[in-house]
Design a protein that fits this description.
5 helices; 8-stranded antiparallel β-sheet; globular; alpha+beta
Length: about 220
């Protein structure tokens, strides 16, 4: 179950601050106060997850999707491409997620997940958006047990690095070059399991992290 959401630099919102989400959530506000923008944002994420294009960071939509937000510039606060779209949300996991270090055989587990992402354009041409950073945090009854993130290297548009807190990744010999870009806004680069000896579990974070089911459950569908 989704528990909270926060948006920064999305349409009319500079910062929503954390919004608590409950099984029954009602948004109140005057006309044009940004209520519909929150639903549009969630629909955009669902469209992106459902898209077959793995290289598409965000899918604002087209004439055949539930929402069409136009270009990336049109959905950014103030239409200023110097601004980055940042968002985070947390939720309760339906089942405990276990993380096992295949080298040390140590095991940790948790029942809550947090996800955050930072998306924006790069360079003078200000082309298609890229993921600057995303991270997953696994918690056990409120206590952080592991934090894993992917971050773009400042020197290049398509080179990324993987890192973690409360966990140490071990590189595979002969795999010294940087990681490629993430899959969409939330998926770890395809090379992660090849470049690191003990990073297989990150695929579970991606699958558990953005399940299609809770997008539909927000509107009582699915």
């Amino acid at each position: 179950m989704l528990t909270h959401l926060q948006l920064k630099n999305f349409k009319g919102w500079k910062d929503t601050t954390p919004i608590r989400i409950a099984p029954l959530t009602v948004l109140f506000g005057t006309n044009s106060s940004g209520k519909s923008s929150i639903e549009q944002f969630l629909l955009m994420l669902k469209q992106t997850v459902d898209s077959s294009d793995r290289k598409l960071v965000l899918y604002p939509g087209d004439a055949n999707t539930p929402v069409n937000l136009g270009s990336f510039q049109e959905l950014i606060f103030g239409r200023e491409l110097k601004n980055r779209l940042a968002f985070s949300f947390g939720w309760q996991l339906p089942e405990r997620l276990k993380v096992i270090d295949r080298l040390s055989h140590s095991e940790i587990s948790g029942n809550e997940m947090l996800f955050s992402a930072d998306v924006g354009t790069v360079g003078e041409k200000q082309g298609a958006p890229v993921v600057h950073r995303f991270e997953y945090v696994l918690k056990n009854s409120g206590t952080e047990v592991i934090r894993v993130w992917v971050e773009r290297k400042q020197s290049a548009k398509t080179e990324y690095k993987l890192d973690a807190a409360h966990y140490v990744f071990t590189r595979t010999q002969g795999r010294a070059w940087p990681l490629g870009p993430p899959t969409k806004f939330y998926g770890f680069p395809d090379q992660v399991s090849e470049y690191y000896q003990n990073a297989d579990f990150v695929k579970d974070l991606g699958v558990t992290g953005i399940p299609r089911g809770w997008f539909d459950s927000l509107w009582g569908r699915g």
